[in-house]
Design a protein that fits this description.
Largest interface: A-B, 96 and 96 residues
CATH architecture of the largest domain in chain A: 3-Layer(aba) Sandwich
GO molecular function (chains A, B): acyltransferase activity, transferring groups other than amino-acyl groups
Distance between the termini of chain A: 56 Å
Number of domains of chain A: 2
Strand content of chain A: 25-35%
Strand order of the largest sheet of chain A: 11-12-14-13-15-16-17-18
Structural class of chain A: alpha/beta
Order of helices and strands of chain A: HEEEEEEEEEEEEEHHEHHEHEHEHEH
Protein name (chains A, B): Esterase
Number of helices of chain A: 9
Helix content of chain A: 10-25%
CATH superfamily of the largest domain in chain A: Alpha/Beta hydrolase fold, catalytic domain
Shape of chain A: globular
Oligomer: homodimer
Radius of gyration of chain A: 23 Å
Number of strands of chain A: 18
Amino acid sequence: MLLMSFPSIAQQALWGGPNIVSPEINKDHTVTFRIQAPDAKDVKISGDWMPRQGWIPGSADMTKDTAGIWTYTTDVLSPELYSYNIIIDGVKTTDPNNVYLIRDVASVFNIFLIDGGQADLYKINDVPHGTVARRWYNSPGNNTTRRMTIYTPPGYENSKEKFPVLYLLHGMGGDEEAWIALGRTAQIMDNLIAQGKAKPMIVVMPNGNVAQQAAPGESPKGFYKPTMQLPHTMDGQYEATFKDIINFVEKNYRVKADKAGRAIAGLSMGGFHSLHISRYYPNTFDYVGLFSPAIMPDPKVKSEVYDNFDATLKKQMENGYKLYWIGIGKEDFLYKYVKEYREKLDAMGMPYVYRESDGGHIWKNWRIYLSEFTPKLFN
Amino acid sequence: MLLMSFPSIAQQALWGGPNIVSPEINKDHTVTFRIQAPDAKDVKISGDWMPRQGWIPGSADMTKDTAGIWTYTTDVLSPELYSYNIIIDGVKTTDPNNVYLIRDVASVFNIFLIDGGQADLYKINDVPHGTVARRWYNSPGNNTTRRMTIYTPPGYENSKEKFPVLYLLHGMGGDEEAWIALGRTAQIMDNLIAQGKAKPMIVVMPNGNVAQQAAPGESPKGFYKPTMQLPHTMDGQYEATFKDIINFVEKNYRVKADKAGRAIAGLSMGGFHSLHISRYYPNTFDYVGLFSPAIMPDPKVKSEVYDNFDATLKKQMENGYKLYWIGIGKEDFLYKYVKEYREKLDAMGMPYVYRESDGGHIWKNWRIYLSEFTPKLFN
């Protein structure tokens, strides 16, 4: 065939270097990384399976062979979606042989997956797949259009049925790409639905930063370096205008537009948002999930959203709900604030389900929490 | 606020290094790149605006300052979407300060955009935006489910109107992510529609490799190193089963399901596919676009799809169509085959529009061709 005549030098130049495989998942679930760098003095790998020193990620030296290829093999790794970077002579960058990348705020990591156990929920299995759309909606409360990611379950398009909706909120520095990429939401939902463990549901992943129309690179602001903190993320504006999102979804999708058909959950800042949105609209959600929530017991920011906290929380309790779920890792830096919040709920007699996991403020936990929370919805 | 208490070391460790901006688009449309690499001996940049030596990409040395930051500033660049890599001590990798990345087969590039002129079509402007969905469909002809990317124009969901459809096919090594990422299809369509230059239309971007269910990383095959060549890409199977895609789209979307409402176009291998699909289904498409098509005048592969080439092409001509559009760059390695094909069309009296551009077999040209082709459709 004609395209066979592409010279091999062209293929090498255009579509990657020599045929180095990295990472290679070995049969025993160790993982070998390789990088060709004959002129580098020092090559390290930094992976999220390595012990951290406080906030500093762990790293390990790679070893150079006579051909200039550096390698590193891990110990046996448990099933999980892992991320890593390569550090070439002090520069933390990506593995040129691994095209699978995820951005988290302003950092880009390579990823790989060790299958088995919980991690099989993160794989694309041979099951029916939902549709994932990026869609713009009008937000009159913010006087602009904004972008969301929306998962509709397998069969949605060919059904006349009405589906329940989970609103799933990201953390600080995240956006409408966070849950679908880092959270593996589409894979988790496809798999749980196929296994009969979760009801078919729509999952709406909005952008929780009202200062943004869309994720970095996806709005008229163009390409810029993302930052962790943006104005108006935790000042009540998002919560107060959340009805724009609910209205859009309920007008544009075949949904169960009642309390029994609505759930809201979020991680970190999104847990804070979920707490306040479910309280501010106190008879709207039958299911609330706070994943490592960034509880703010004494906000400096004044907003009518945060006024009458205790009274509206009590109102939410009195109105009734089916599930108020709180999950946090034992090592999370927010642990003590969540503990205080639980004491407050205990004191007022507000029922909740509490899940304490290992680990800290990390996506590994949020994927687990999503996998455990969604089977409890809409039953 | 609580999350303000994230120590700055944590932010630096978790979400990127010191605040280096790279690339910086200067006011005069030169571009400055920066990378902190005090321990590197040699840092280069390789960008697609640099002259190539044959297939070998150009590169230039970056210069180190006393703080260990390497910089490089380009000459004035014309408006365009550009791609580049950083080469650290001989290792071609990505710029750690630029989170905007695109994969092309097995390579990952950083991107940036110089606005103005044609490139303004590639920007996300403040115009109504269509919806981009990744959706799975059943392909009985391939006995499997497969993934496609589908663009529905602004207003599609809130209309009762039927829309015409452009089937837009990728090249060898590409997949259903190629046109939407490298081709900026959603941006081009949003902008042309907003300017009244293109009719609102649905754009279907299927996966043209029947050996794949979906793009690398998006199928049960998991994460693996993508390759340029796959079995069954140019052996007739895709063309013969293309009706599965048309059937799916016409059953599941509000479309004009007639010849006047169908266009097909593709680049390189996708141009080859478009040529053969439009001929094999000779009364199906009123609009055909061959972008740098990989014409295969004497296929070694035997398939009933390629039988009776001349007779079915003549049949297509006799059935009539509104546009048969061929575009190619003067430096394209396929130029001579396209010239031969045009001579064949001339000899048989088959009308076509011919567009010859500068440059070679590159995405810059395919974005231009898409921008010029779509305004000619469905008028």
